[in-house]
Amino acid sequence: MRRKVTSLLLGLGLFGGAFAATAGSAQGHGYTDSPVSRQQLCGNGTVRNCGQIQWEPPSVEGPKGFPTRGPADGQICAGGNGRFSELDDPRGGNWPATSLTAGQNHTFVWRISARHATTDFRYYITRDGYDPTKPLTRADLDPQPFLTVPFGGRQPGSTVSHSGVLPRKSGKHLILGVWTIADTGNAFYACSDVKF
């Protein structure tokens, strides 16, 4: 009898520890709402077969320092997080794309569920000739962000908006938003498919 009780308590302890570890990662942090990110499309049900990201759209966190460091090529949209690898799948170039006008002002919006001291928000865009049927690599991106918004270590609110001029592009492209955290070794990544 004593062995059964000990086994039961051990099992409950392991379950509780696993539950706490899983629940901790589900708290989320942030994602781009405009232009709509892949994780938001999965979270709101617009895109199906997304795996775990459908329940955790704000949780695409990975190493900071992009582009010299950070997630490996082909794993950028998931922030290098294997649990969210569906975000790196180009789906044959068929992710829904937000229509944008090249050279015009656009208001970028982040939805933030856990506020962090912030270094900056940076936006990269794919080069001309980008192939949306292949996973994103650094070589696909213009080397410099087209918009950088310094934050000086401040904490953002639950919604962050800032405007910038869109690059002169045509056709289908991908915008990579990187929210760099000031007081941890991580950043948040959001890939938004767009069409000019």
Cα radius of gyration in angstroms: 19 Å
- CATH superfamily grouping: chitin-binding protein cbp21
- β content, as a range? 25-35%
Query: What would the principal axes of the Cα set say about the shape?
Result: globular
Structural class: alpha+beta
Helix-strand topology string: HEHEEEEEEEE
What is the count of β-strands? 9
CATH topology group: Coagulation Factor XIII, Chain A, domain 1
CATH architectural name = Distorted Sandwich
Low-confidence sequence ranges: 2-27
Number of domains: 1
Mean pLDDT: 88
Largest sheet: 6 strands, mixed
Number of helices: 2
Straight-line N-to-C gap: 70 Å
Helix content: 10-25%
The CATH class is identified as Mainly Beta
What would a concise description of this structure say?
With 196 residues, the chain is of the alpha+beta class. The protein has helices at residues 2-25, 38-43; strands at 30-34, 61-63, 98-99, 105-112, 118-125, 147-150, 159-165, 172-181, 186-195. The protein is globular.
List its salient traits.
196 residues; alpha+beta; Coagulation Factor XIII, Chain A, domain 1; 15% helix; globular; disordered N terminus
Please explain how this structure is put together.
The chain has 196 residues and is α+β, with helices and mostly antiparallel strands. It has a single domain, classed as chitin-binding protein cbp21 (Coagulation Factor XIII, Chain A, domain 1, Distorted Sandwich). Strands 2, 3, 5, 6, 8 and 9 form a 6-stranded mixed sheet that branches. A 3-stranded antiparallel sheet has the order 1-4-7, with no helix packed on it. A hairpin with a 4-residue loop joins strand 8 and strand 9. The N terminus is likely disordered. Keywords: Signal. This is Chitin-binding protein.
